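Reviewers of the previous submission asked for a worked example of the structure-prediction workflow described in the proposal, so we include one complete record here. The input consisted solely of the amino acid sequence. No template or homolog information was supplied to the procedure at any stage.
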Amino acid sequence: MKPMQWIRAGLAALAVSGVLTGTALAQDMPGAKDYPVLKRFAGSSIVGYEMRNFDEVDFQTSTFKEFDLGSYKRVYAEPALHLEGKLTRLWYEAPGQTRALELYRNYVNELTGNGFKALYDSTQDPKATGWTNFLASLSGGKKDAIKNNRSEYVIYAASTSSLRTGTFQKDNVTVRLIAIDWPKADEVYKAKEGAYIAVDILETKAMQQSMVVVSASEIEKSITANGKVAIYGIHFDTGKSDIKPESKPSLDQIAAYLKADPKVKLHVVGHTDSIGSFESNLALSRQRATAVAAALAKDYGIAAARLTGNGVASLAPVASNTTDEGRAKNRRVELVPQ
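From that input alone, the workflow returned the following structure tokens.
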């Protein structure tokens, strides 16, 4: 996932009282808003915000062990709780004398008072250790890799031993808290000395299948009229190239089109949205296209020589990458005659 955009206004420090409130501040980043049923710490402002109609999150339910630089994921003593659904992600800043423990305790009290059950609370975990020790142990190259992942770097660069984390759940809503102390004002993130808390809220739900399967005859018509056809019914997990089982109806239609005209040869072209680095998206789009070509050859008996997989990452968008709807349209596989 792409790190949140950080927008700062260069504000004076605010006096903060130790209660949660429903009052928004003028200093919130543009477009940001509180989650409807969760109040904010009084005097804090929203400095990071994003909302996704459908995404996946690994929620901590056991002791943090390490950050895996291969997968860019946090590793815990026990497997994380993997959930999918609507995601709201906020970073709140409470500058001045507020510290992470006070901020964290207020949110825990608010959640448990509203019926949320604690699935994990680092303040109740005798094995919990400061994640920031991990950053200090890295070599220059690996440390730079963490810094490039801004939301992770903020966590690991925080004041040593200030980190508090928790996972709380009620019905279909799961909340992740990550509270840190920022040691001093800096120019890199325009962060003030004070406490920060990340609040991730995921509402578990099934993904709505909104893309229509394109029939073999429609594939032929689109290629004849436009020189290509966009296929939206081939599905992958985020960041992966393994084709999901629900892709079969679209693969059936592509195979039917190819079998109807044995002379046709196709470029299978993978497209991604712009979330993440261009290099990783380029590799991912190529891997996905190659996986589609391989599946058509293996499962449908299409000659491998008739299919060439390639990827162009986010270089050919058909909609804006600034909205969930636009990004969904940009994630596709296109078939282009050779």
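The CA atoms of residues 116 and 169 lie 5 Å apart. We consider this example representative of the routine output the project will generate in years two and three.
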